[in-house]
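> call design_seq(struct)
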């Protein structure tokens, strides 16, 4: 899926990560043209950017030679996607206002190509209501965002503001490219979920150990895929963010294929906003900290020591969204004992509206099987359903969600 990407680098300490981003995008076969803001030139040199992208770097709105060779409008027109990384508070503000005071801002104003912003700024700048307002405006206009993440910042403070890591930006960009390559599916005219958008995660995640090995689990994706089919049949527009499964994509459903939990989170945030979010995936709790480019070798001094790092919790992240939280956020809980008690604890811990709990203990054929017996747990209480086919569980759940959504409006 080789695409043309226009990368806009604005000023910020994270500009150095843009160099790695160019390399990785090109390794994946994408063509990368780069525009640098004047401030970006304070952090990295146009020479290194040109060397890595294999293209001249654009920076000056009034450069006669650049304008003659390729008008600035043409720069964004030739692109399948525009990535702004790092996206400074200043450039985000300009884009939200529709200013055209430099080449980067002009391109963002003159384009109808989708834009992915990877913000990077001081935590107070990010949390400032002015920035949050600008981000909300851009989102409403159809822009996508990846990050920023939490952590220690170059300025010595701690909190959200760190630019997303390069693999996250690439996963978000490729998910967007995949979406925009597909023809928009018409929403069904009728059904209890007509006009609604439902986002569902499904299947396992694969967390690489090295280029040939990975950590996985036995999830088949059957329940998540059945939910997607049921939501589509109920009239919803459905985005299914799926880990690697051996199932055919449900018809009429937009499927975004991912491998890792971090990719799943990126693809989910891009798919939002939604009316209902259902986390049916069996997400790996950890990923391996350092995955080299080479297959690990058997060595005389014993097996390798893998350092595991906790994965982001997609369900808790979506349930905790301060802005744009889906009206209904649903989680699943696969438990081997005390199914209801653990499900209730999970409801509180994740901050979701409902937990669908099931027993996957010894003797159960839920993982990979065709049927499921679930307990529907919410603040209102527990409803235990008989053993049913997974597609029937999905159909009944969708009818329940539609009613809940109606009650909430
Ligand atoms: O934390 P635990 O895996 O027990 O919770 C299960 C629920 O949380 C499921 O709905 C699953 O899809 C979701 N989950 C998630 N991201 C994770 C772990 C679990 O969305 N990293």
């Amino acid at each position: 899926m080789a695409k043309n990407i226009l990368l806009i680098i604005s000023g910020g300490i994270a500009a150095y990560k843009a160099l790695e981003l160019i390399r990785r995008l090109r390794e994946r076969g994408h063509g990368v043209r780069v525009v640098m803001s004047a401030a970006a030139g304070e952090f990295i040199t146009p020479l290194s950017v040109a060397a890595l992208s294999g293209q001249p770097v654009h920076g000056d709105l009034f450069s006669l030679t650049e304008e003659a060779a390729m008008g600035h409008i043409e720069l964004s027109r030739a692109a399948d996607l525009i990535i702004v990384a790092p996206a400074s508070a200043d450039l985000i503000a300009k884009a939200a206002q529709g200013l055209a005071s430099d080449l980067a801002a002009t391109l963002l104003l003159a384009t109808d190509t989708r834009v992915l912003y990877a913000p990077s700024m001081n935590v107070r700048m990010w949390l400032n209501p002015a920035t949050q307002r600008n981000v909300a405006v851009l989102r409403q206009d159809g822009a996508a965002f990846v990050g920023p993440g939490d952590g220690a910042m170059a300025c010595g403070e701690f909190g959200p503001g760190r630019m997303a890591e390069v693999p996250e930006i690439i996963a978000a960009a490729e998910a967007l490219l995949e979406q925009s390559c597909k023809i928009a599916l018409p929403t069904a005219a009728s059904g209890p979920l007509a006009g609604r958008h439902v986002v569902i995660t499904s299947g396992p995640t694969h967390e690489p150990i090295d280029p040939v090995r990975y950590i996985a689990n036995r999830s088949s994706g059957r329940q998540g895929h059945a939910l997607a089919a049921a939501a589509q049949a109920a009239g919803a527009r459905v985005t299914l963010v799926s880990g690697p499964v051996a199932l055919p994509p449900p018809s009429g459903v937009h499927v975004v294929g991912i491998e890792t939990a971090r990719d799943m989170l990126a693809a989910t945030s891009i798919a939002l906003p939604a009316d209902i979010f259902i986390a049916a995936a069996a997400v790996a709790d950890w990923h391996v900290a350092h995955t080299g480019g080479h297959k690990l070798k058997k060595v005389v001094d014993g097996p390798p020591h893998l350092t595991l790092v906790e994965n982001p919790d997609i369900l808790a992240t979506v349930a905790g969204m301060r802005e744009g939280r889906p009206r209904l956020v649903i989680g699943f809980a696969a438990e081997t004992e005390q199914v209801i008690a653990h499900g209730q604890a999970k409801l509180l811990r994740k901050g979701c509206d409902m937990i669908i709990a099931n027993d996957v203990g010894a003797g159960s054929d839920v993982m990979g099987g065709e049927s499921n017996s679930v307990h529907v747990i919410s603040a209102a209480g527990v409803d235990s359903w008989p053993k049913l086919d997974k597609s029937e569980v999905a159909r009944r759940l969708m009818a329940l969600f539609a009613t809940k959504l109606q009650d909430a409006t």
